[in-house]
Each structure stands twice: as C-alpha cells, then as structure tokens.
Amino acid sequence: MDTLLSGQLLFAALVSGSLYALVALGLNLVYGTLRLLNIAHGDLVMIGAYTAFGAFSLFHLPPVISVFLAAAVCAGLGWAVYEGLFRRLLANPTLAKRVEANSLILFYGISVILQNVVAMTFTASSRGYQYLDTVITWGGVSMTGNRLLTLIVASAVCFGTLLFLRHTLFGWSLRAVIERREAAQVVGVNLNRVQLITICAGFAAAGVAGTLVSMTEQITPFMGFPFTIVAFVVIIVGGLGNIGAGVLAGFCLGLVETYGIALTSPGYRSILIYGLFVAVLLIRPEGVFSKAVRS
C-alpha cells in the first residue's frame, strides 16, 4: 500500500500519461479533421526518434534542440502525404465518402515504406544515446532529468494545443471542421487550409513524442506499432475527434497502466491496455469522456 501511495509511482504514471496524451493528440487531430485512419502514426514517432538520434550522434545536437527538427521533418511528411495522396480525394465529394476506408490501406503502405527506409539507413539494430540520465531527488521522489523533461514538454504541448484551439480564430475554425464539416465550409472556413495545417501539426506532434521517447528508450525501425495501438486506445476512450478528452484519456491510461502493473506484474501491461480498449467499446463506444470534456 505504501508503494501505491508513493510519489514515485505517481510521477511514473504522469510521465507515461503525458507521453500517451501527446502521441494520441496528433492522431486525434488528423482523424477529427480529415477522418483519416493513420495506422502509420506510430512510425512517425519512430521517425522523430531517429531524427533526434541522428542529430545527437552526428552533430551533437541535444534533444531540446532537435525536437524542433523532428517536428519539422514529420510536418514535411504530413505536407507530402496530404498534397500527394489526400487533397484530391477529400476535394471530391464522391471519393471523400470512401476516404476513411481507403486511408487505412494507404497508411499501411506508408508504414511499410517508412520502416524499411529507416531499416536500410540505420540497420534494424537497436539504437540509443545518453542524455540527462543523472538521477535527481526532489521531495522524496527520484527521477532522471530526461523523464522530467519528457513530462514538462509533453504536457506543455498538449495543454498549449488545447489553449490554442480554444482561444484563437484558427482553433475555432478547426473545431468547427471537427464538429460540423459541411457547416464550417458554408460559413467561409477555408477547408483546404485547415486540413493541411492540421495534418502537418498532427504529424509534428508525433515527431516531438518520438524525440522524447528516444531520450529514455532504445529505438528500432519497427518500434511504432505499440504507439499506434496506444494512440487508438486513447482516442477511443476519450471519444473520436474530442481533443480535450483525448488528452485527459492519455493521462488516465498512464495511471491505469502504471498502477495496474504495480498491483500485478509487467507481463500484464498489454492485458491492461487492450482490456481497457475492449471494455470502453462494449460499455461506452462513444468515449468515456465524450460529453464531460470538450476541446
């Protein structure tokens, strides 16, 4: 019981939750605005991780700087994917009706391409580097600097995005597209502009998450799938397209995973995540926080 009530466990849960919220944020933005099922989202996390690793290994750039490079690289991929694959589909009313199903196949192909390009460039071996790995003790809680940085950056990006969506004109336009796409277009929202910026921002968020992951874990070209699954679990729990609820759901998943493992064993991690996913689909398929929290 003392372990469950310890600040150490709470800190671990908050770090995991903030990272899950950040990973899911990008996927939720893209799905909510464009209705694209991006199963390659975890591979964007991988691209961000390798960008940070390459910048650190070749140019000795710390992750606090390369995080911007990773975001830019992934945003560039978002621009290429939108302009090359989805802009024409979304502009055609007939094709737009099938874009959600078609995106599943297209993103699967993108996932395979990204994994193999990175594997050919860096080999399939695990990679890693050391950064801010010294232990800090504060208030009886021991933590490494890189995990503390992960919590700060991930939380700042998530809550900064929520403030941006609530208090800026573009944020209002984006929320309008998520809630009533046709109505938003009727009242003058530039749908193409909103879609392009949103997919770039969603991909960039995944790149930022990848940089944070690279500081604390070894990375491989095939590390993305678990992050894709976690992101889908988070947005299902929060409610598809509900950005604010998705952030809250990410932190909740971190708490469920961390405290669940503490009560059982690490071998139950997948059972806890998938169990929560199935339970929500059966009991409240519209999302646990779908009405309680709005973006």
Written overview of the protein:
The chain is mostly helical and 295 residues long. α2 (41-59) runs antiparallel to α3 and α6 runs antiparallel to α9 (191-216). A two-stranded antiparallel ribbon has the order 1-2. The two termini are 36 Å apart. β1 and β2 form a beta hairpin. The chain folds into 2 domains: 25-222, no CATH class; 225-295, no CATH class. The model has no long low-confidence stretch (mean pLDDT 90). The chain has helices at 7-34, 41-59, 63-91, 93-96, 99-122, 145-167, 169-179, 181-186, 191-216, 224-238, 243-263, 269-283, and strands at residues 135-138, 141-144. The protein has 12 helices and 2 strands. It is globular and about 55 Å long. The relative contact order is 0.21.
> Low-confidence parts lasting 5 or more residues at pLDDT below 50?
none
Helix content: over 70%
- Count of individual helical segments: 12
Q: Strand-residue fraction? A: under 5%
Number of domains: 2
Oligomer: single chain
For the record, give the distance between the C-alpha atoms at the N and C termini, rounded to a whole number.
36 Å
